[in-house]
Amino acid sequence: xxxxxxxxxxxxxxxxxxxxxxxxxxxxxxxxxxxxxxxxxxxxxxxxxxxxxxxxxxxxxxxxxxxxxxxxxxxxxxxxxxxxxxxxxxxxxxxxxxxxxxxxxxxxxxxxxxxxxxxxxxxxxxxxxxxxxxxxxxxxxxxxxxxxxxxxxxxxxxxxxxxxxxxxxxxxxxxxxxxxxxxxxxxxxxxxxxxxxxxxxxxxxxxxxxxxxxxxxxxxxxxxxxxxxxxxxxxxxxxxxxxxxxxxxxxxxxxxxxxxxxxxxxxxxxxxxxxxxxxxxxxxxxxxxxxxxxxxxxxxxxxxxxxxxxxxxxxxxxxxxxxxxxxxxxxxxxxxxxxxxxxxxxxxxxxxxxxxxxxxxxxxxxxxxxxxxxxxxxxxxxxxxxxxxxxxxxxxxxxxxxxxxxxxxxxxxxxxxxxxxxxxxxxxxxxxxxxxxxxxxxxxxxxxxxxxxxxxxxxxxxxxxxxxxxxxxxxxxxxxxxxxxxxxxxxx
Length: 492
Ligand code: NDP
Hints:
seven-stranded antiparallel β-sheet, 11 helices
């Protein structure tokens, strides 16, 4: 944690300075770095919890939340919810005090945050000089009558659109990859609570295969599948707050419908992407990173010293989960089916790699732990691994069965779990991502891990949207290391 503390004397009485500063939505009127300020959900600007959405002069965005405000003490506190810089845990205080003669005001602006070690100096300087010192000068100028002119007009949030032509992957019935058909579609005008996204990359997930086969009834044919995509907002419905045309966004959520070039979406589960994350890598990792976040922090909270066994460790979710578990201080055992995939796992620092197509992974895991057993198994393979995963656990260990790539586990006599007092969990993505707050929490946690360099997302295999059936064939035949994304040809 670092602290930035700056102060100045302003040549004006405290009430004049306070009148400008206390307006949480008025900083675009004087701070040169801020072009547009809007309060989300049309909340009053002095409501505790109000979120302001800044568009900065350089085109980037910041979202900040008011935590406290006291007219009596002439002070307020706020935190940053979203920023394209690694200012983790940023909380700032603004406080004024009248100088004895009453015609001058002492203003202190301070903050604490946790930057990555390598960027500490740079970020302390950015906050102290470019935000606070520049802000001090700007207020003094404004009080002298040199009022700043906003660089950008308030964004237009009218619903402008009409229906539009697009292309999508349609599924007329459940079945194999051949049921995925590339077709022209018409996307209707967005509703007032929707934005239209021109999609650039679509993420392919194993859940899309369960959806296509009908194992999960997420889409009733005819329909469009897909849970994840990245694109740019091109139309904003009149009732939408906090999103603007030109915003680069991603989503990883129900309802399915991501396999398309254009999509109208409500904004509840949209995530703004940090600048350091490319469209392609975001589409390859958002759903899988959110999954890793709730698996490692909520379903079972991995702690330093734990021994974690992760199956399909070289898959999309697996690679992220292993790196993240390592960053949490765990010893990681990863299983996979080929030597090529095993090599990738060694490169990312997995402590013990087991080729489970050749070796009995439970025996090896017991050997590694000197007969004790592992603390937790993350098992998304299902039928082929379930029994041995239980065998690999220590007494009172936890089995997280979060997928069934090899097939359904079927009925299980839970009395058998008593042999080792095993805790068994079967988490469902939807229940861990059922609110804007939950989605943002997991997404931001994941972005923080990327920023800190704890997780590297491999460049995904790329196919065109029209080739979605090939992507499904490749994943199901266990060819892939990491993820596949579909790039979207803009034909319309
Ligand atoms: P992956 O890239 O991990 O692909 C699946 C992997 O499973 C394959 O690469 C393969 O790895 C392994 N596998 C083992 N047996 C088989 C088999 N018989 N057929 C096919 N693959 C097999 O996919 P994702 O990263 O998209 O998803 C990983 C798992 O996580 C899936 O089971 C998915 O359903 C689950 N998931 C669950 C969520 C939840 O909320 N419960 C959310 C997100 C994902 P190898 O060759 O190394 O064995």
